[in-house]
Amino acid sequence: MNETYSLEMRQIVKTFGPVVANDRVDFRCRPGEVHALLGENGAGKSTIMCMLSGVYRPTSGEIYIRGKQAKIRSPKDAAKLGVGMVFQNFRLVQTLTATENIVLGEKSSFWRGPGWLRRKEEEIEAIAKRFGLLFPVDRPIWQLSVGEQQRVEIVKTLYRGAEFIILDEPTSVLTPGEAEQLFETLAQMKAEGKTVILTTHKMKEVMAAADRISVMRKGRMIHTIAKADTNEKELAKLMVGKESAAVRRESRPRAKGPVLLEVRNLDVYGDHGRLALNDLSLTIRAGEIVGVAGVAGNGQKELAEVLNGLLPWKKGKIVFNGREFKTASVRGAIEAGISHVPENRMKSGLAGSLGVVDNLLFKSYRSGERSKYGFLRSASNREWSQSLVEQFDVRTPGLDTPVRQLSGGNQQKLLFAREIHRNPHLMVAVHPTQGLDVGATEAVHRLLENLRDEGRSVLLISEDLDEVMQLSDRILVLYNGSIVGERGREEADRETIGMYMAGIRDEKEEAV
Fold first, then answer.
1. Mind listing the pLDDT tens digit of every residue in the chain (512 residues)?
2. Could you state, in order of their start, the residue ranges of all structural domains in the chain?
3. Which residue from 184, 197, 199, 489 puts its CA 20 to 30 A from 26's CA?
4. pTM for this one?
């Protein structure tokens, strides 16, 4: 064990069934440093930190803290060793005050006595002031802004004595001003000898805050380097890899079809109440796959939802197949010919407790083929469902089997069967192969390519850069809710796309 390191993770392996999330990862931190852990979504950085904080247990490997081997089996074990983690999705009780959330669970709270809560509020206010993290300590969490809630989470780790503080994608929900304030807080933590680990995909915050940077890719640790010895372009190259793009299927030259979808100057606000799509414009032509690359949280979810009528827009216009959409309407999008394969198939795509027939009927039960006088045509619907199951090779014990009992690949094929059967003009597919094995992934790719070859259009939103580059005729890159780059199929390369994803613009394009 090198004495200069206050924390060391050696040869850490974490598997989830057949999936290897972390593959023999080595990670080391020094006292009094801000260490950035950089990588694309799915690189394994959050998983490795979840093992350090006790949320997961390593499949194999060793963790050393202050020179001694540590057995971290739970968040409680991690807290005793001085490890605290602030998750991207905050873990706060909305109806309790900020102070009550911070002291929740500590032994001293069993016997409070007169004036106990006020003394705690003063103690917490002092910590918050010292680190530049002020917030109303006596207000319930639901009354606080997202930025203030994050401050509560950070102060909670400091109040509990954390010396190793993990911040998971901390600026993803912050305004630029709040992000600047956070960087000042990190500097104060560093000055007090604390070790801060910052998991992120954003180059600018890495270069603004970090002393050293470790880059992960596809579950492996690629490189660790001092900030002074690198730059944004080199880090972007390390993050997405130097290897050539996935082998693209041979493509036949196609005549460009007419414009099917035109989005102009669209502003959309997300669930968090902040601008998610900012003056966004794009077009999609008939008979093409347009891929959208970008790190999660840059507006992909909102783009898919606004096109499918799930989310209203504040400004701009959407024209589809020659007709302008006036308001957000799910039924309007369905009737216009837009199909949707959502990111989470079991949360918003399928009803797990229902059988195959019911799930296939969700978007067509009103049609004359599927119902009459308000009653479903049960016999013909079963025959129709069976034909789709066979056509799309959905492996199921029976038509009445709850779809939650099917494998992920068969659930996805069932979802595609329902959406494609409607003969859509546009398919919006969000992470369509997430969690699928190689065979199921290949089947989904064929379905998307067949749609394009039939003259239909596909908007492919995926965090898998290989998938986007393999399938897309054009690639758009989303960053902070705007299209920051576009590349055609033949001119796209990983390095350029990776830089766009990190918010680094091409110098020539910036000059135009």
1. 445 889 999 999 998 887 788 999 999 999 999 999 988 766 888 889 999 999 999 999 999 999 899 999 999 999 999 999 988 778 899 999 999 999 887 765 545 666 888 889 999 999 999 988 888 999 999 888 778 888 999 999 999 889 999 998 887 666 566 778 888 899 899 999 999 999 887 777 888 889 999 999 888 999 999 999 998 888 888 887 754 344 445 555 556 789 999 999 999 998 767 788 999 999 999 999 999 988 777 888 899 999 999 999 999 999 999 999 999 998 999 999 999 998 878 888 889 899 999 999 888 888 878 888 888 888 988 998 999 999 888 888 889 989 888 877 788 889 999 999 888 999 999 988 876 666 677 888 998 999 999 999 999 998 778 889 889 999 999 988 899 999 988 888 887 887 888 777 665 454 43
2. 7-240, 259-511
3. 184
4. 0.63
CATH of domain 7-240: 3.40.50.300
Tell me how far apart the alpha carbons of residues 159 and 272 are, in angstroms, rounded to a whole number: 27
d(CA 69, CA 400): 52
Equal fold, 7-240 vs 259-511: yes
Please tell us whether the domain made up of 259-511 is placed in CATH 1.10.10.60.
no
* Angle between helical axes of 494-501 and 232-240 (0-180°, round to 10): 110
Residue pointed to by tokens 């639901």: 142
Taking the CA atoms of residue 69, residue 75, residue 77 and residue 80 in that order, the dihedral angle to the nearest 10 degrees is: 100
- In three-state form (DSSP H/G/I as H, E/B as E, the rest C), the secondary structure along 186-243 is HHHHHHCCCEEEEEECCHHHHHHHCCEEEEEECCEEEEEEEHHHCCHHHHHHHHHCCC
Q: What are phi and psi of 425, to 5 degrees?
A: -80, -35
Nearest CA to 138 out of 96, 97, 107, 172 is that of 97
